[in-house]
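Contributing new records

If you add data, match the layout below exactly. Sequence lines come first and carry their own label; structure lines follow with theirs. Keep one chain per record. Anything else will be rejected by the validation script.
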Amino acid sequence: MISSALLEKVKTLSKKYYDLMVEIRHQIHMHPELGWEEVETSKLIQRELNKLKIPFQLIKKIGIIATIKGQKPGKGKCLLLRADMDALPLTEETDVPYKSKIPGKMHACGHDCHTANLLGVAAILNELKDQFSGIIKFMFQPSEECGIGGALPMIKAGILKNPNVDAAIGLHVSNNPINTINYRREISSGCPDDFNVEIHGPGGDAGVPDQTVDVISLGAQFIAAAQTIIARQITTTRPALITFGTFQSSSTDINTIPKVVKLSGTLRCIDEDIRKSMYNKFKNLLASICKTNGATFKFDYLWSYPPVYNDPLMCDLLLDTLSPLIGKANLIEEEHAGLGGEDFAYISQAVPSVFYYVGAKEPNRECFSAHHPKFYVNDQTFFPLASLSLTVMALNYLLNN
């Protein structure tokens, strides 16, 4: 454990850089950028790193790896700290003064908070580099929300090498109560696979459905029948879901049976065998419904990232480090893995890692989930615990290894 004197330094520096974190967060929030578009966000972080005289390199033109080398004698380990930078395609409906200035784009998942927090943690640790040996890499990652995400391309570009990363830590804001941290040992999240389906028929007059193929009816039948895959064909001991997010017709005429309907959504689970089984059952069901009713179909499936795996020893680091700071009762170990996706999974598959959730729910304010246009994070309920917890965990890891 770090000394009480060092802990006090961390607390002082967390307060010192609080205003910087808030300023950066508000700038990012007002100018949200979607996955692989985070050019201005990246430039903003680069400017701040230059001011702090923290060296960095660009990965895939947008991603950033900043590096701080400890000045204490000894080789030490290499630790990676990660934050994501992208926004979501939503129009913001909050009333905050730093509301998004770009219609149709919003930081509705807290990535603005994560990025600003990691910059603040880098500033703090940069002032404390004489206190530890080893190396800390700060990963500012694009495109967590898109497809396979930005983590895997950055890994393929070599961020876990030269020097080799020994362990990694990531965090996410949550609407759990303030001053709480949630985590889960081993598998903690799901595989967020996406699908796009088209059902095709000849189209025709709504008054003579027997002379065509009613693709709207088949789409509805497919949606209803697909839920029986989860309810009756997948074990009840392992979480899984199928969610349809869109249903669109090629026609706008109420008296026309359209030629095409399009459906899209997500299949999620935490088990690789169940994942493959769900895919096969889902596709076979679609084919059967279409064949039986004389329709054809197109089926595109995106195999997304694997589950996040929290290494038990890294979970012990979290527990041992943060219990004295917020109390063991406020460290909540989840019993079940959630089905939210997170491409930190690729990092956790490569090196021992821990990914945890910082509670930031403001008391007496209506709470909206992530990916909602009214999603809201209070700076005062997030940054103090987020910056302190990540900094102290990083120091404890390096000092104990």
